[in-house]
Amino acid sequence: MPSHSSDQLLAQILSWLDEAKAENVVSIDIKRKSSLGDYMVVATGRSDRHVGAIADQLERHLKDKGYGRVRVEGKPQCDWVLIDVSDIIVHVFRAEVREFYNIEKMWAAERPSDPTTH
Q1: What does DSSP say about strands 39-45 and 88-94: parallel, antiparallel, or unpaired?
Q2: Rounded to the nearest 5 degrees, what angle is found at the Cα of 78, between the Cα atoms of 74 and 79?
């Protein structure tokens, strides 16, 4: 796997999503919120075919850049495709599916402080 920082890889992924005509692309810094990774990227495709095409293009770019096999889930349905690239998790949704799950709202929220016990 290349030795790019997650910030450099994020910039490339955002560029590739733009190139694939993904819509409403949002990146969320999750470094202090989760051990899952450094960033979560959420994007929308106009249709299930567009979601699949975005995922295919992203997967191809990552392979060309030396990231080999990245974990991809949801491609058969193409209403929500998850692409797990090391420290960055990319979600590509159809608009109504993105609206239903609204994951960026959940992840963008500030993490509550540790609850006090009584």
Answers
A1: parallel
A2: 95
Domain ranges (residues) in the chain:
6-108
Distance CA 20, CA 95 (A): 16
| Distance between CA atoms of residues 4 and 35, nearest Å | 19
Query: Is it true that domain 6-108 has CATH number 3.30.460.10?
Result: yes
Task: For residue range 75-111, list pLDDT tens digits in order.
Answer: 989 999 999 998 899 999 999 999 999 988 777 665 5
Digit-coded pLDDT (tens) for 59-72: 999 999 998 778 99
DSSP classification of residue 36: S
User: Which residue type does 101 have?
Assistant: Y
Are 82 and 74 within 8 A, CB to CB? yes
